[in-house]
Design a protein that fits this description.
The protein is mainly β. About 0% of the residues lie in helices and about 50% in strands. The protein is built from no helices and 18 strands. A 6-stranded parallel beta sheet has the order 1-4-7-10-13-16, with no helix packed on it. Strands 2-5-8-11-14-17 form a 6-stranded parallel beta sheet, with no helix packed on it. A 6-stranded parallel beta sheet has the order 3-6-9-12-15-18, with no helix packed on it. It starts with a strand and ends with a strand.
Amino acid sequence: ENEFYEFHRHAINYQSSIRALVARNYCHSRNYPDLPGASTSAPPYKSVDGARGDDCIVFYKTGDSMAIINIAETVNAGFNNITASVGYRNNKFFGNIALSTITGMQWTPSTPFDGQWPTDSVAENNVVLNSSTRAFLLLTPVNVTLRNLSSFGGQNGLQVRKDSSHPQPSNPSMKGENML
């Protein structure tokens, strides 16, 4: 149970973790710009949008983890599931809210690609309000389930597509139920 303000990259970042639980947090970047001297190759790193923070919560190389009842406001992506390395899978996102984000929730393989796509993950009872590009983005998902997702006031709701910058899995699949 935390509040995060004025960050230019990630408010909460789990890397190479198993069974992480992050619950009841509030993140607002307050349009905090990149740090002076930020670059793409060395710390301090540039953010995706230099005028706001990148993510409220990011799971990177993380598996069997849950994000429950969190609120993200004015960030690039509210909730980011970057699946990398075989064995990191089965992440769950329950009851999260993204407000005024560029993308509310996104699940993507890592770049550079290291062998794993977003796999065996679940998003349930999540809401995105006023996303500027899309509420939910899934790049080449494998056995992903989306249930009770709502998007209001944004440009696009759900975008599921092949990721042309990575090899394709032999079994891409996504199941959606009760999405608005």
